[in-house]
Write a structure and sequence with these properties.
Blueprint: H1 2-37, H2 41-58, E1 66-68, H3 73-83, H4 86-105, H5 117-140, E2 150-151, E3 158-159, H6 160-176, H7 185-189, H8 192-210, H9 230-236, H10 248-275, H11 284-301, E4 306-308, H12 310-318, H13 325-340, H14 342-345, H15 350-364, H16 367-375, H17 378-393, H18 396-417, E5 420-425, E6 428-433, H19 442-450, E7 457-461, H20 470-482, E8 489-492, H21 500-505
Parallel strand pairs: 6-7, 7-8
Antiparallel strand pairs: 1-4, 2-3, 5-6
Helix pairs in contact: 1-2, 1-3, 1-8, 1-12, 1-13, 1-15, 2-11, 2-13, 3-10, 4-10, 4-11, 5-15, 5-17, 5-18, 6-8, 6-15, 8-15, 10-11, 10-12, 16-17, 17-18, 19-20
Transmembrane segments: 42-60, 72-99, 111-133, 154-176, 251-272, 293-315, 327-360, 381-410
Domain SLC26A/SulP transporter: 12-375
Keywords: Membrane, Transmembrane, Transmembrane helix
């Protein structure tokens, strides 16, 4: 009994520590994703809270952590612009959650495995590119009021302190992850995003005290309303506009959110399971239902859409988490921060949050990924590029569809190219079926038959085919029927199995003979 209690206490201690670490990673990400999405910072924190307090309890994953995802920023910005209001967008989040629950009930969790890897990598890379492009203006402080600290540029006034802080923050984030930096205990103990936020707060306070003229204006800092009670918290919640439930655009956005959020969740779940030392597996269908309920709650309260996120999940695992308690603890701490840390959070420069997301975007679209896809050949590169171009030119859902279509066409082409083989020796020809022959292989068959001259001897071998489409059979029927006129001798060897009625209807499927 004492041994069991000791194990429980050790697990509890590990989960509490991991929950604190995940909270420190999630806090700046929640604020940064909300700012990048063009909504109130509270919406990002609210999604993190729901991910910790709701999804963590319903999920079957021991280590996965859920919250607002950088990968959905592009969809959120586009959707709010299309729908015209945040309240209409919340309806889409609510519907997306319901669709995810339906996906889970229909056991659609395994469908993500059918999406080609190049398409998934292309989707993530395109999200990374869009994330960088959209965060650069914020990192530069574009649009800040003209002052002695701004520089006039073709894109508008650039706030030099914000630009300098963003550049230093991006550099710090990359340096923080190098093996040389990891030799220091401080670097190993403090997450990179937290270090950037601490740097930003320190610079903000220092400039306010020493050089107010160079200080960051209120519009370039986090603006989180002070919440002194749960009544104030209830007043800060945003409600969806339920009259928009009949809007077709709302449903289109909801479908996009449901598909992309589900894909990101399932990919994150698979990655975490592979990293888990105990190789514990969770039901993907249960995870979809948990995420769906979380998104329904987030949409109803005024939060951003939620997914399982690999950055926070990795931090959770690396911090020594053992159960879902760590994710729940991180949600509790996010809730506490809304009440206790508002004054500190409002000192965070938006440039620092933009730097965090720029680095996140770089990780999704790093040049090494493109080089790796090029080395893997055209069959992988073409769907990858098609997905990126499709997403950048249209939207995420259409771009994913374009990438899948490109993958299917390439797979069909590769599959059909080797259906038949025609070997030649003098005036003797061997036409071999190398695999099952569908109607799509008919053009290749016709090309092979066209190469056979008059007065030839042809041996047809279909031993390797278990199925031959009727179009293929009829094409061979016509060739065999025309063979006597062309003085062609045709010999059939082995044919695929077909039913008795088909044998009666197809003369050429009867026992082999020579024409």
């Amino acid at each position: 009994m004492s041994k069991s209690r000791s194990i429980d206490f050790t697990t509890l201690r590990s989960d509490l520590f991991a929950g604190i670490v995940v909270f420190l990673v999630a806090l700046p990400l929640c604020l940064g994703i909300a700012t990048a999405s063009g909504v109130e910072p509270f919406a990002g924190l609210l999604s993190g809270i729901v991910g910790g307090l709701v999804v963590a309890l319903l999920s079957g994953s021991h280590l996965s952590v859920s919250g607002p995802a950088a990968g959905l920023v592009v969809i959120v910005v586009s959707a709010i612009g299309t729908l015209g209001s945040f309240s209409a967008f919340l309806c889409a989040v609510l519907i997306a959650g319901a669709l995810q629950v339906v996906f889970g009930l229909l056991r659609a969790g395994q469908l993500a495995s059918f999406v080609p890897v190049p398409v998934i990598k292309g989707m993530l890379a395109s999200i990374g590119l869009l994330l960088i492009v959209k965060q650069v203006p914020l990192a530069m402080g574009v649009g800040a009021p003209a002052s002695s600290a701004t520089l006039a540029t073709p894109v508008g006034p650039v706030l030099l302190p914000a630009l300098a802080l963003a550049v230093v923050s991006v550099a710090l984030l990359f340096v923080w992850e190098t093996p040389r930096a990891k030799r220091f205990a401080l670097v190993r103990a403090v997450p990179g995003p937290l270090a950037v936020v601490a740097l930003g707060i320190g610079v903000t306070v220092l400039l306010d005290m020493v050089a107010p003229a160079l200080g960051l204006p209120a519009g370039q800092r986090v603006a989180l309303d002070s919440l002194g009670s749960f009544d104030a918290l209830a007043g800060a919640l945003a409600l969806p506009d339920f009259t928009q439930l009949v809007d077709a655009d709302v449903w289109r956005v909801a479908l996009t959110l449901a598909v992309v959020a589900s894909l990101e969740t399932l990919l994150s779940l698979e990655a975490v399971e592979q990293m888990d030392p105990q190789r514990r597996r969770a039901s993907p269908d249960r995870e979809l239902k948990a995420q769906g309920i979380g998104n329904m709650v987030a949409g109803a309260l005024g939060g951003l859409p939620i997914t399982a996120v690999i950055v926070r999940s990795s931090a959770n695992l690396n911090a020594g988490a053992r159960t879902r308690l760590s994710a729940f603890v991180h949600g509790v701490l996010l809730l506490v921060s809304v009440f206790a840390l508002t004054s500190v959070l409002n000192l965070i420069p938006l440039a620092c949050l933009a730097a965090i997301l720029i680095q996140t975007g770089y990780k999704l679209a790093k040049p090494q990924l493109i080089v790796a896809m090029m080395r893997e050949g055209a069959e992988r590169l073409i769907p990858f590029v098609a997905t990126i171009v499709g997403v950048l030119a249209t939207d995420l859902l259409i771009g994913i569809g374009i990438g899948i279509a490109a993958s299917m066409l390439l797979a069909m082409r590769a599959n059909l190219d080797d259906t038949f083989a025609l070997a030649e020796h003098d005036d003797h020809y061997l036409l071999s079926f190398r695999k099952d022959a569908s109607f799509l292989a008919k053009p290749m068959l016709m090309r092979c038959l066209a190469r056979i001259p008059d007065h030839a001897t042809v041996l047809i071998d279909a031993e390797r085919a278990d199925f031959v489409d009727r179009d293929i059979r009829e094409t061979l029927d016509r060739f065999i029927a025309d063979a006597p006129r062309r003085h062609i001798a045709v010999e059939r060897m082995q044919w695929p199995r077909i039913d008795a009625s088909a044998r009666r209807r197809l003369p050429w499927a009867r026992p082999a003979s020579t024409t």
